[in-house]
Specification:
With about 375 residues, this protein is mainly beta. It is built from four helices and 18 strands. The relative contact order is 0.16.
């Protein structure tokens, strides 16, 4: 799956890169373009830029060192006067590794500093995060799966219960799998450059912003061993001291999410070669979930409703076309609500990188 994903990304980004080399907004269309197929003309349109605002990539090759910190946070809670809540997040994960790039395509591997190993099955956390940034459209693909690696971060079981007794306690009875894909369109794509902030493939020369719209799909599966959790509570507080609300007594549940989003992004060029980008989108999501509860007379766990989700992107970059360094962050929030049950999920990732471009492209060589 990893190899197939890389091949697809290489094909898409290579076509976009070739188009960017041959045509920008400031360049007149050649007569031969009329003979091009509609598909090729469409693909070229994705890379139209105004070079008064955006500087194209000058080099063919790049090497980069990347550090990646990823986390996810889940909060399960009930509603009402006797509301309870349980929060989970995995152990902190920081990975570092080398990357090698050709124009818009980067291939590399990051190593978990807790357990440097190439055995993917031995890790409690598995994940794929891939993004495609062109001038006009963007896409995100992500897959996270965490098993037996969570810790309790916050527990509220009612009055008279000391929450600190369960803080940062390992808990193997909570497993999560998240898979999602999103596609978005950037309106002011000729003057605003997402790649300048998140792909280092262009440079924003003048501050500029853009509205954007998108579509997305996400599926999320939760497994919660509520009996093991109650046993842990009994061990810490004593039997019958605190009882888990019946609304949290489910064995597994799956959420399906289809959403439409609207947002705004802005690139602020605050100094020569320096850029700060902030982007935020809100999504109206239709969500459906099915699962199994411990209470058979309840007829299972089922809900259909609409909620508001959000995604934020932030980037800080120095790029003089040859050397570049910076940091980026992506935060996704998902919310589910029913009459007595609420689930909140936050997925986040922070990257630190430094890189060097080489192999000057022909159009920039001095004649």
């Amino acid at each position: 799956m990893r190899i197939l994903l890389v091949i697809v990304l290489m094909m898409l980004t290579r076509v976009s890169a070739v188009a960017a080399d041959t045509l920008t907004v400031d360049q007149p269309k050649e007569p031969e373009e009329k003979k091009l197929s509609w598909l090729r003309r469409t693909i070229r349109g994705f890379s139209y830029i105004d070079e008064n605002y955006v500087e194209p990539q000058h080099y063919n090759w790049s090497v980069m060192l990347l550090g990646r910190y990823a986390w996810d946070y889940y909060r399960l809670s009930t509603t009402g006067t006797d509301a309870q809540s349980v929060s989970f997040s995995p152990r902190h994960i920081f990975k570092v590794g080398p990357y090698f790039g050709w124009r818009w395509v980067f291939l590399g591997y990051t190593f978990d500093l807790r357990n440097i190993s190439l055995n993917f099955s031995s890790a409690g956390w598995k994940g794929i995060d891939a993004s495609i940034y062109s001038a006009q459209i963007g896409a995100d693909i992500y897959y996270h799966h965490t098993r037996n690696d969570y810790m309790l971060r916050g527990v509220n079981l009612g009055k008279g219960v000391n929450e600190r007794l369960l803080e940062d306690v390992p808990f193997d009875g909570f497993n999560v799998g998240t898979t999602g894909v999103s596609l978005y369109y950037i309106f002011n794509h000729q003057r605003f450059s997402y790649p300048a902030a998140f792909a280092q493939s262009t440079c924003q020369k003048i501050s500029c912003g853009s509205w954007m719209v998108g579509l997305g799909y996400m599926s999320n599966s939760l497994e919660f061993d509520h009996e093991a959790f109650q046993k842990l509570v009994d061990e810490r507080y004593g039997k019958q001291k605190a009882q888990l609300d019946s609304a949290l007594m489910f064995n597994s549940v799956k959420y399906y999410n289809i959403n439409a989003s609207v947002g705004y992004a802005y690139n602020w060029v605050f100094a020569r070669h320096c850029l700060f980008c902030a982007s935020a989108s809100l999504a109206l999501a239709y969500k459906k979930s099915r699962g199994e509860t411990a209470l058979e007379d309840k007829g299972g766990f089922d809900m259909n409703n609409f909620n508001i989700d959000g995604i934020g992107r932030f980037g800080l970059v120095y790029n003089n076309t040859k050397w570049y360094a910076g940091a980026s962050a992506i935060v996704r929030t998902f919310n589910y609500r029913k009459e007595r049950f609420v689930a909140n999920n936050v997925l986040g990732e922070v990257c630190l990188y430094v890189g060097y471009n080489f192999g000057l492209r022909s159009r920039y060589k001095k004649k």
